[in-house]
Specification:
Length: 247
């Protein structure tokens, strides 16, 4: 009787073990989640910048950036140790300069220190550790542009510290058609990116408060739009009645 009871108990234990193994096999396996980019299917580095955001985000401006050479600029290149190589060169429309004994060199869009390093590399083939200095003899002067409803729209030299209201006065001031509550300033901050700011000059002048007046950077463009009333004035009926419209 005892042996029979042990055999029945053993059978139940085997059945329980089999059911447990079957349940373990049916349970889905636990996996680690891993996010991969859709293009290359490589693991994502959480510290790396988003490639899309990096592409679309404008580059930060450098503080006190160096002047970048442009076509028609004139460079005085001096060799203190070997003055026979001294030369005056003009940046051609294609961005190249022609050098004595060193061929052509592309310099457009580069600063003077960068050009000096390029010249040292070019002349290292014929001179031992060349010493080179560069002086900008002629270059594009800093400027700003004023357009829209001003008396004399155009391009003006930027001489010293100039604000938007001062620039408008340099351009002859607002016309009767100007909407000087919505003056727009365009400023290029990087390749392909332009910063746009709106300035309420009318409010500033009415309050005699120029604290918000914007100081210009070289290349800034100011645009004064036309006010609403002047756009429809030619279509208004000519009557002896007084008429006023907000704008």
């Amino acid at each position: 009787m005892r042996n029979k009871t042990l055999r029945i108990l053993g059978a139940f234990l085997l059945m329980g073990a089999g059911i447990g193994m079957s349940a373990a096999q049916d349970r889905p396996k636990e996996t680690k989640s891993e996010v991969r980019p859709a293009d290359d299917q490589t693991p994502t580095d959480p510290t790396a910048p988003d490639p899309v955001e990096s592409k679309d985000r404008p580059a930060l401006q450098k503080r006190n950036p160096r002047y970048l050479v442009r076509s028609s600029d004139i460079l005085q290149i001096s060799f203190p140790v070997t003055p026979e190589f001294d030369q005056l060169v003009t940046v051609q429309p294609d961005g190249y300069i022609s050098l004595h004994g060193a061929g052509d060199l592309y310099v457009e869009g580069k600063s003077v220190p960068e050009i000096i390093e390029l010249l040292k590399a070019a002349y290292a083939k014929i001179l031992h550790e060349p010493v080179i200095d560069i002086l900008l003899k002629d270059f594009e002067k800093p400027y700003f542009i004023v357009g829209g409803q001003v008396t004399r729209p155009g391009k003006y030299d930027l001489r010293g510290d100039t604000t938007v209201t001062e620039a408008v006065q340099i351009a002859g001031g607002f016309t009767e058609k100007s909407k000087h509550s919505k003056v727009v300033i365009y400023r290029r901050v990087s390749e392909g990116w332009v910063e746009v700011k709106e300035l309420d000059v009318k409010k500033m002048l009415a309050k005699n408060d120029l604290n918000e007046d914007i100081h210009l950077h070289p290349g800034d463009m100011i645009y004064v739009p036309q006010n609403g009333i002047s756009k429809i004035k030619s279509f208004l009926p000519s009557t002896g009645l007084g008429m006023s419209m907000p704008f």
